[in-house]
Write a structure and sequence with these properties.
150 residues, 5 helices, alpha+beta, 4-stranded mixed beta sheet, globular
Amino acid sequence: MREMIFKLLEEIKEEYLKKYGENLISIVLFGSFARGLASPSSYVDILIILEEVRNSYEIYTEFFSLLDKTSSYSEMKRRKIYPLISPIIKSKKSLIPRALPYLWSGEFKIIYDRNKFFERFIKELENFKKKCLVFHPKPIPHYVVIENGK
């Protein structure tokens, strides 16, 4: 399944480059698939960063329309494999570490990264985590935001 997902991500990248061109900044896999811990019921968490994002409904509708155009997704459906695709589509300017808790504990597999934007963001995220987050493993693993490093 992992190989099929990575093939699908490559096709999504190609479709997005055709449709959005320079507006496409990054496509990143995160979550259990990025960590190599996915199960058949795992979501395929995809972060797509665009220079500008229009109407949210429209942008998500377009994502699933582009997904349907890929041969990998068609092949998966033919085999009765229905991956749980979970896209998060953000504008470049909305990528602020404090506002994205679903990325705090993440590992990432960069599928596309124009001008190393997401690589730089990871450094910014790591810096934020060191200065402003405290990890608590119990009772359930979670982070607490601290202000001014206190």
